[in-house]
Amino acid sequence: MKITIFGTGYVGLVTGACLADVGHHVLCMDVDQGKIDKLRNGHIPIYEPGLESIVKHTVEAGRLAFTTDTKEAVAHGVLQFIAVGTPPDEDGSADLQYVTAVARSIGQYMDEYKVVVDKSTVPVGTGDRVKAAVRSELDKRGLELEFDVVSNPEFLKEGAAITDFMKPDRIIVGTDSERAKGVLHEVYYPFNRSHDRMIFMDIRSAELTKYAANSMLATKISFMNEIANLAERLGADIENVRRGIGSDPRIGYHFIYPGCGYGGSCFPKDVQALTRTARDCDYDSRLLNAVEAVNNAQKHVLFDKISHYFNGNLKGKVVGIWGLAFKPNTDDMREASSRALMQDLWNAGASVQAFDPEAMEETQRIFGDQPGLTLCGTKEQALKGADVLAICTEWKEFRSPDFAAIAATIKEPVVFDGRNLYEPEMLERHGMIYYAIGRGRNQFHGG
Length: 447
Hints:
It is built from 17 helices and 14 strands. The chain starts with a strand and ends in a 12-residue tail after the last strand. The chain has helices spanning 10-21, 33-40, 51-60, 70-76, 97-109, 126-141, 161-166, 178-188, 203-234, 238-246, 267-280, 286-298, 301-309, 337-347, 360-367, 403-409, 424-429, and strands at residues 2-6, 25-29, 64-67, 79-82, 114-118, 147-151, 171-174, 198-201, 318-322, 351-355, 373-375, 388-391, 414-417, 433-435. A six-stranded parallel sheet has the order 3-2-1-4-5-6, sandwiched between helices. Strands 11-10-9-12-13-14 form a six-stranded parallel sheet. Strands 7-8 form a two-stranded parallel ribbon. It is an alpha/beta fold. Helix 17 links the parallel strand 13 (414-417) and strand 14. The mean pLDDT is 94.
């Protein structure tokens, strides 16, 4: 099939590349000429394992192309995927200006039946707004062309997006049109050969499903962080608790790892947006409010531990940081816990030496020549001259370091682990002091 993707960000580029990989002819459109030029030259603007090779071979095969020409994009595909950004507005609601702008463009240029697919994460009711925007433009042109609007939310984990797309748990499609169902069945047929993963429902339910899924996962994380903070005060070990409750199949082990808070482009934004949606319909979403509050506080727990260790006097101290991205296998720094930690340290008069396997360029872009920030080429360089070490991201290369070398390099043999990568006894054997999240009474918990 011929498919158009509006937006070459994370969702748009992964969707376009994977659909092209199974044989569809995909044209990705973006208003950013610089980004399109880079993509045409083989430069991928985001880090996602496996994405670069798929883009390269599908472009070479002639099944994936890029353009800034809106008219060309609308003419290309029967399917018009909207995968543009929906950033949080000042009140926490999703900003739909880019989504509606694309919808208007489709209405301005379409001359035959189209299926307009909302792939972006959008609030409940967006399908109606997209339909109205397309219809308004057609009315201006005096045309009565048929079209359908479909909600098809993405469920892609950064760092595992290719696998998630190619082997989905479910494919949610919101539509009341049999014709649109047939088109979407054809598009996703290659991903349904072992069994049908498609779940059809009405548009509003599909839109809410996306927000509900991310909010549920965020809730599990914040719940475990609450229990971890309680474990510190009670002298319990959260790792034992995690194994104990995770063995219950009703709970499971996914998303019950405590740490220094969740981040990224999805969970924080989607919890805020769903909370705003609840307020708009006069409902007090007390649980969602608590999830967000717990997470915002959790991002400062690592700093509290460091500050407590130095008796509140961090002026002139140097903290080595391993991990800057909000999670491993991505260079995404949006809402990353490392950002909160670094800002707290700078406010307290400390400086930072940081390393991340993939997010160094993004960190430089965000902070520029920030005083008190030194970006290091290796994790070992981040230790030289540092007083202590803090860990914010659970990259694999941090899991089995040379503890003896760490202890010999940093001024004080102390590790503040925001991701619970190590067993306390292991570091104690190397003569090190270890502070993690919820590992017992010897942990500083602040307050």
